[in-house]
Amino acid sequence: MPSAKKRKVQAVVDDKELADTLDALDPSLQTIAEQALANSIEEADGTTPAPETPSKRGRGRPKGAKNKRTPTPDGDIPPEERYFFQTRVGPANQQPTSTNSFSVLGLLSHDDYLEEIRKYKDPHDLEKRFLLKLHARAFPQWQFELSQDFSICLYGWGSKRQLVTNFAEYLCKQAPKRDEPHPKTVVINGYAHKLNIRHILNTIATAIQSSSGEEDPTPVKLIGQPQDILDNLLGRLDNTTQPIYLLINSLDHSSSPLRHPATQALFSRLSAHPRIHTLCTCDTPTFQLLFPSNVRDTYNFVFHDATTFASYDAETSVVDDVNELLGRKGRRVGGSQGVSFVLKSLPENARNLYRLLLSEILTILADDDADAGDGDHGEGFIDPSLLDVSATPRKRNDTRSHAADDIGIEYRTLYQKASEEFICSSDMNFRFLLKEFHDHQMITTRKDASGTEVLGVPLDRGEMESVLEELVI
Fold first, then answer.
1. In this prediction, what percent of the chain has a pLDDT beyond 70?
2. Same-domain check for residues 149 and 294
3. What CATH number corresponds to the domain at position 280?
4. Whether the predicted pLDDT of 43 surpasses 60
5. Residue 410 lies in a domain
6. Are 229 and 354 in a shared domain?
7. At what angle do helices 261-271 and 197-209 cross, to 10 degrees?
8. Given this model, what pLDDT does residue 432 score?
9. What is the pLDDT, as a whole number, of residue 373?
10. Residues near 274 by Cβ (< 8 Å), separated by ≥ 6?
11. Which one of 73, 138, 333, 413 has the minimum C-beta count within 10 Å?
């Protein structure tokens, strides 16, 4: 026989109106509604169910509770929080690990690369061309600003090499004013690793000499320290009325010698001359930190946003980056920049020995040029990469060794000269200093036909001169 409590619940449930309401609910909700109804009846009768006896447990968290993850409730949380919750990092053993490596990739050959690059078509080529046309409208304004003794600095995303080339063509097409000679234009690629300040100043001097009307002027070769060469060049500019447009690509390139503070001081002095009109481009976001206040004032810059979104094809050293990515070491460590960086951390005796080695090799090259009667060929801008350091010279005595691939000095000759200058006191000390150069790939060692050990430097002539200047100063 049912209890009184159940009879009361049944009596309430038997009510027709309440029964219809319960039937309209889902089956799961009907059970909840009946339980709530029973609780209300118990409260009306004054009877409450006895509480359950809590189970006893020790202090602290339950065993194994620290290993359980507490999920974030699926509530009304911001989308960014929900993203981080869904992509949260789990235990290491649950994370998928990739087995891919560079060794399983098939490297493209040169022919395959050329074939793939021909198939590629830039989807934004029309927009980039339109940007260049918009910037070309500002060419008259740039020319006017340059004529008013201002220098121009172009900045913005993308390579501006094509834009500078278009501006150079625009300047060449402009007719000079009455009683004024046609201006000369010198383009300097600051991203070139083998750039040398001496060649730049000599090229400008050659451009000044060509104003005399000679079709093939003799290349000018100013000698001395860069400061003395600049003073000589400024004296030549005072005696001419021909304007010189100096267009510099990537003045702030990380591996460019133009980024040195000493070089920047020389260029700012050169740009301050009334006959020199300088336009340069910068690509790094922090390019303004490159110019101290005194250098910026001497440049007298006007800044223009010249965003082109063009790819940096010539400005980036793709071959060096790929070789470094694949773990391949080149023939030298970072060119003159890397050698200068290593020399700063070496003791004074090591720097003096490297200075002596560079001086001897440059002396050999100077003697070869004097015997052959060849100088620098200065048609326009002199590209230091065209300097032939590996040419086969004449052998004049047994203390200087030459080869078709390199120019060097014999080991015993260098050791004798180092001993005379008190750079090293013994052969073991000499070998120890050379080991530092070998470890950093700053020198090369080979044996000639007679088996004599010959020491060389994996740098071209311009880079050796640049490193030697820093060591002398």
1. 67
2. yes
3. 3.40.50.300
4. no
5. yes
6. no
7. 20
8. 86
9. 52
10. 149
11. 73
Domain span at 215: 125-305
How many CA atoms are closer than 13 Å to the CA of 271, on its beta-carbon side? Answer: 26
Instruction: Give the Å distances, CA to CA, from 200 to 184, 226, 275, 299, 361.
Output: 14, 10, 16, 18, 23
From the number of C-beta atoms within 10 Å of its C-beta (0-12, 13-18, 19+), residue 362 rates as middle
Nearest residue to 205 via CA among 244, 248, 171, 256 = 244
The angle, 0 to 180 degrees and rounded to 10, between the axes of the packed helices 461-472 and 197-209 is 110
Same domain, 287 and 343: no
pLDDT of residue 217: 58
Residues with Cβ within 8 Å of residue 9, at least 6 apart in sequence = 34, 37, 38, 41
Among the listed residues 393, 253, 358, 352, the one whose alpha carbon sits nearest the alpha carbon of residue 312:
253
Which of 112-126, 294-308, 421-435, 447-461 is most confident? 294-308
Residue 317's pLDDT band, with cuts at 50, 70 and 90, is low
Nearest Cα to 306, choosing from 283, 328, 289, 335?
A: 283
DSSP state at residue 375: -
Put residue 60 in one of left, alpha, beta given phi > 0 → left and psi -120 to 50 → alpha.
left
Answer yes or no: do 442 and 339 share one domain: yes
Domain tally, the chain: 2
Residue 399 confidence class, pLDDT cut points 50, 70, 90: very low
Instruction: Looking at the structure, tell me whether residues 346 and 429 fall in a common domain.
Output: yes
Instruction: Give the sheet arrangement for strand 407-410, strand by strand.
Output: 400-402, 407-410, 453-456, 444-447
**Mean pLDDT lowest among 4-8, 127-131, 312-316:** 4-8
CA distances from 60 to 6, 29, 64, 65, 71 (A): 43, 38, 11, 10, 21
Residues in the chain: 473
Residue entry with tokens 């109106």: 17
Alpha carbons 302 and 66: distance in angstroms, whole number: 63
In the three-class reduction of DSSP (H, G, I as helix; E, B as strand; rest coil), residue 32 is classed as helix
The model's confidence at residue 424, banded by pLDDT at 50, 70 and 90, is: confident
Task: Evaluate whether residue 276 is within a structural domain.
Answer: yes
pLDDT score of 201: 87
Distance CA 406, CA 366 (A): 15
| 332 confidence band (pLDDT: 50, 70, 90) | very low
pLDDT one-digit tens code per residue, 196-222 = 788 888 888 888 876 555 555 566 777
Across 106-168, the runs of DSSP E, i.e. the strands, are 151-155
More confident site: 145 or 182: 145
